[in-house]
Design a protein that fits this description.
single chain; about 450 residues; globular; disordered C terminus
Length: about 450
């Protein structure tokens, strides 16, 4: 039927409006392709997904209540073989050190390895400050001297069991170390290093004035007129040198587990944030003052325990055994071993105690160690910033892969492609790969 004459565009517009109304009443889509409100409401009532592809809340709730359709409970709960290799290797190595190593070494090297166990704990505490929080400290040897002084005083004045003495030395040193760290909370970098170095010098002077306890009376426990100074006692189960070496290794293992428990939990994550950026950590709501004090307290506690183990290892303590410059050398070997790794503390202790023992046994002056450590720090900071504990296994892995390529040139390594060989799939044509027409 033709349009009525005289009505023109007005009649067409009125007709279009009525057609649009009928489409909305019937639920038909609009001419412009937009989805109607009624269709969207019906989909929401029925729980159907939206046109944009987003998942509805009801479907997500049903999947959560049913345990999840795409969740794989079996493979995630099964332990990975690679995750079990490292604990097995560490356990085997610990058993070897405890039982086989003392049978293979002389008493001279057993004493040196006991010192390695002690200074591994000290390097571990310094690694917490330097590697985990980013606080450079030159006072760790002075904190070790405080722990040794407290342990010696308790061992001479009381008959407490040796583990209780170690715990008491760690707690008292932790309190003193935290008080020492209070003025340095707002300092970082070179300023913090200078403050801790001055504090270490002051502690060394104070210990040289008061001397270490030697069985005397009074608060200090020092008797200057004594001719026969009694040795600092050891635990009854570890009176001999090999037994005390095992005792020291067990104490060191416990301290490593304590630090590992901190790193794997909230303090470790807070320390990592502070090390990256203290301002960002503050913006994220992290109490930087609390966690920095926590780091100082933990490092002081384990260093105080190391001081107690050291007191029983050498029997006699003198202020000249803790010079201030040893703090600088200790920081250097920690950087060489790896401040960001727990194994770096072991490497640092080997460099700090076993290497001088070897040079002394070979008739080489230990003064060369200053030059060697200087060259080592320069080399490590330029080629291996993460330390030897990270770089050496990485280089050995590369060397092993290179040797396998040389020895087995015709075989493919698992998961890798040897140079000069092209996968066969890349040479197939469209018809061979199934992509062409039959």
């Amino acid at each position: 039927m033709s349009e009525p004459e005289g009505r023109g565009a007005a009649w067409t517009e009125e007709r279009g409006t009525s057609d649009e109304g009928r489409r909305r009443l019937k639920g038909a889509p609009e001419a412009s392709g937009r989805q109607s409100t009624s269709d969207e409401g019906r989909r929401r009532l029925k729980g159907a997904p939206e046109a944009s592809g987003r998942q509805s809340t009801s479907d997500e709730g049903r999947r959560r209540s049913e345990g999840g359709m795409g969740r794989r409970a079996g493979p995630r709960t099964r332990p990975d073989a690679r995750s079990l290799v490292r604990p097995a290797v560490i356990g085997a190595l610990l058993l070897f050190v405890l039982f086989a190593l003392p049978q293979l070494l002389s008493l001279y090297y057993i004493g040196a390895m006991t010192q390695v166990a002690v200074y591994a704990i000290v390097a571990l505490g310094l690694g917490v400050l330097v590697g985990r929080v980013g606080l450079v400290s030159f006072g760790q040897v002075a904190v070790l001297a405080i722990g040794a002084w407290v342990a010696a005083r308790l061992l001479f004045a009381t008959s407490l069991p040796y583990p209780v003495v170690l715990l008491g030395a760690g707690v008292i040193t932790m309190v003193l170390g935290t008080l020492i760290g209070l003025p340095a909370l707002r300092l970082r970098g070179l300023y913090l290093a200078l403050i801790t170095l001055m504090l270490a010098g002051g502690i060394t002077v104070a210990l040289a004035t008061t001397n270490f306890p030697n069985g005397g009376s009074g608060f200090l426990g020092y008797n200057g007129s004594s001719v026969h100074i009694p040795p600092i006692r050891r635990p009854s189960i570890a009176a001999s040198d090999p037994a005390y070496f095992r005792y020291s290794v067990l104490v060191a293992a416990l301290m490593f587990l304590l630090v590992l428990a901190h790193i794997r939990t909230r303090p470790g994550r807070a320390w990592a944030a502070i090390r990256q950026s203290e301002l960002t950590a503050l913006a994220a709501g992290i109490n930087t003052t609390l966690y920095k004090l926590w780091a100082f307290a933990l490092a002081s506690f384990i260093t105080g325990v190391a001081g107690g183990v050291l007191a029983g290892a050498i029997h006699y303590l003198y202020s000249i055994d803790f010079p201030t410059q040893d703090s600088i050398t200790l920081l250097a070997v920690v950087l060489m071993g790896g401040a960001y790794s727990l194994w770096g503390a072991v490497v640092a202790a080997l460099l700090y105690q076993l290497l001088p023992a070897l040079l002394n046994n070979w008739g080489v002056s230990s003064d060369w160690l200053t030059i060697l450590f200087g060259i080592g720090v320069l080399q490590v900071l330029t080629t291996a910033p993460a330390g030897l504990a990270y770089q050496v296994p990485k280089d050995l892995g590369r060397l092993g892969r290179l040797l396998r390529r040389r020895v087995l040139p015709g075989r493919l390594l698992p998961g890798r492609l040897l140079p000069g060989r092209v996968p066969r799939k890349r040479l197939r044509g469209p018809s061979q790969s199934g992509g062409g027409a039959g």
